[in-house]
Structure formats: structure tokens, C-alpha cells
Automatic annotation (TrEMBL):
It comes from Nonomuraea muscovyensis. Residues 1-111 form the Transposase IS200-like domain. This is Putative transposase. One of its GO terms (biological process) is DNA transposition. GO terms for molecular function: DNA binding; transposase activity.
Length: 115
């Protein structure tokens, strides 16, 4: 979720965010199975081994994407405020050990993207 839930992402932003998130995921040797987002948040379906600390993965995803997006899209820096961060400090993570991956992908694919 963006800081203060501001609606700042366009399709161009979301496309670049996906590229950044995939690169960070690859660095952590995790699999970003699905990505989608709206104008103020993103959905990620990540397959990661138990040796990876979820908090470290999320902090890197948010930190790297915030820094790169603000550098590449100066208009987003206006929404960074005092902490120089694009994202809010919170996140949601759920475990889906029994659900088929196809159902999860379908859910994420159906999330609306801004026009």
C-alpha cells in the first residue's frame, strides 16, 4: 500500500514495479509467480523457501522498489514525504499451503489495474 493510500500508480509505473520486484525476488532466489496492482497497492504471489525470512524479503521489495521508482519517476517523489518512502510500513502476507496455485493466480490476475 502506498503511503497514505495515495493513488499514484499508472500502468507504466506498475509495469516497472513488476520488473523491479522480479529482480529483487531473483536476488533472494524466490519465485515471483504473479504480480498485479492498482493505483495505490500491489499484489504479489511469491514462492519462497523457509530459509528466507519473510520480513527481510518484504523490506527489500519495498525498499528497493521505493528507491528506484522515486529515482526513475520524479513525480512519485512528491508522495514520499518526510521519510523518503513510497510505501506504508504495513503489509499483508498469507500462507496458502493447500490452495491450488491456479486459484491464487486467477485471484491476482482479476485485480483491477488503473486505466
Amino acid at each position: 500500500m502506498t503511503k497514505f493510500r495515495y493513488r499514484v500508480f499508472t500502468d507504466t509505473h506498475l509495469t516497472r514495479l513488476e520488473e523491479i520486484m522480479r529482480a529483487v525476488s531473483a536476488y533472494f532466489e524466490t519465485g515471483l509467480a504473479e504480480f498485479n496492482g492498482e493505483n495505490n497497492h500491489v499484489h504479489l504471489l511469491v514462492n519462497f523457501p523457509p530459509k528466507i525470512a519473510l520480513s527481510k524479503l518484504v523490506n527489500s521489495l519495498k525498499g528497493v522498489s521505493s528507491r528506484r521508482m522515486r529515482q526513475e519517476f520524479p513525480e512519485l517523489a512528491a508522495h514520499s514525504y518526510r521519510a523518503n518512502t513510497l510505501w506504508s510500513g504495513s503489509y499483508f502476507a498469507g500462507s496458502v499451503g493447500g490452495a491450488p496455485i491456479s486459484v491464487l493466480r486467477q485471484y491476482i490476475e482479476q485485480q483491477n489495474r488503473p486505466l
